[in-house]
Amino acid sequence: MVVSVVATRMDPSKQLYEREATGWRRGLYEDVEGTFRAPIVNWFFRTLTANEPEFTRYLWAQCKPLFQTRAFGRFTVSYRDAVRSSLEDAPADVPRYRRADLDLRPPEWRELRGQVATFDVVAPRLAFTFAICDRAMNDELPDPEPTGEPSTAPLPEWLDRDRGLSVTMLDDGAVPADLEPTVDEIRDFHGLEGGLPSIYRCLAQWPNYLEPAWSDLADVLESDAFERGCDDADGIVGDHCAELPYVPQLSPSALSERGFDESTIDDLGEFVRQFNRGAIESVLPALVVYAATLGAGGERSL
């Protein structure tokens, strides 16, 4: 994921990657992957862990139970369905590719579908992560109004389990030259000044997919229908945030009581706010669309 980060003490170029994590940090990453049911640790967690490891551990302890309820599972499928349903009114159909359409070998096809499935799994989870951290840390969460048993009943064991594969991606500077026109259009659509979100650095490994997919999806993603889908998905995130069984103790006053200084709290609040604004508002819903083109999408009802 790429965001535009203002000057704070947080250094967005400083990340702790999975292969470098040891000790409790390795355990934290494994817990995030297991809880998200996806073999990937997002830039958000990598950057927080590198810059403020003790805060990251506290944040995860506060938020983890929110990802483990049936209500959360219902939220994830509703998020996915909101995006997919909106596209029924798009000016063009979402394409559905077969391996032969893309001239990919069977191992390439398996990796492409498996890695895109991982992004489909994490899309609603990241949308909720960014929203709940933003609202909690900026003291904008309402008092909890749990909606009965689903608020605390366990997340179904089968939901999104073992769907995706570990994600690989190109470095920012390693995108093939013949993909640059496509990449420029992608940046323009998402309002990116530079760099590429993880999904596109992943898809760039298969130009035979990314070029035709972007060409075929341009009218869909630039349509009022997709914009409405983004708004609907965002509304579902907001509704779920208002129905939590408890409020994570991440407000400025709560963090101060935990011993974090005021400057650190302000920097962290600004940092997480930026993850809930800008390009992610279209990038995360687009993950659901790419999965649909490969038949790699998840459940839409629970």
Automatic annotation (TrEMBL):
A GO term for molecular function: hydrolase activity, acting on acid halide bonds, in C-halide compounds
**Renumbered residue ranges of the record's region Disordered:** 139-158
Question: What InterPro entries does the record tag this protein with?
Answer: 2-haloacid_dehalogenase_DehI
Q: Pfam families from the xrefs?
A: DehI (PF10778)
Name of the protein in question = Halocarboxylic acid dehydrogenase DehI
